[in-house]
Amino acid sequence: MIFMSDRIKVIPCSGMGKVYGLVARESALKVVQELCPQESSTVCLAYIVTGDQEAKELIEGVKCITLDGCPSMCAEKNAELAGGLVTEKVRVIDSFRKHKGAKPGTATELTEEGWLIVDEIAGEIAEKVKLLRKEG
Amino acid sequence: MSINMVKIGVVSCSGEDCLGGTISRLVTRKMLEIRSDATVTICLPLFLAGGVEERGFAEKFPTISVDGCSKACAKRATEKYSGKVSAAIDVSDFIGKEVAEAGALSSRNLTDEHKAMVEKVVGEITTRFDEVLRAAQRDQVAKVAKGLAMVGNGPSGGCGCGCGPK
Fold this sequence. Notes:
Chain A is an alpha/beta fold.
């Protein structure tokens, strides 16, 4: 049995202004809900931002994979500030380098091409989750 | 200086762990469509990650927080790092606590029922938005008269970081 506290935390930025924020969010949801529901979970980044002790306790000392849509790296920075062990820092923009000229949609809605990129990123993160789980 | 340059910051919690967070994000994005000239969205995590522009904007201009649940993270974080919000929307007040706190939803799985929830909250936030905007415009007129006006130089209908709409 894997307790919730043992699950790898997958934390996206969910940035509002660009499509990359939505890609980060959807990739994380796919990992925690479909690909690795037993090995991973997420936590509201906004809750971490509040600095509440209860929120910190959710990720303090827990392995985290962060997904960021822009160079501000908000998910990574906030997870680290709250005491999370950020073992993987995924930059969505890096994945787009493999899809030059792609039209992924907007920060509201993804196109089919956008969803394909989400599936690709989610697949890569799922592999990382499984690897981190094996490491213990 | 025009009163049309008054901007309202909309700060969504976008919670990744509950349906209310998904609805809050969609509602906020919708405001960029229906009040595109006056809406600026602000990335909440940037408040803590060093977003000087975000903090500065929310200190100087009115903000509306949109939270998915009663934890009110967007409202509390905005007020902690920046300034008091002009209006606060809690999605769970409109769609119910249990529904709002159900698991997060991918936008790939949005149903007509979820879209109706978004529209319901959009109706409420639009009313509040217009009230806040009118008050800010009145304030702007008064400041112009005194030579103290401050106008938004960020992009309309865009992101607080100045990247413009995408």
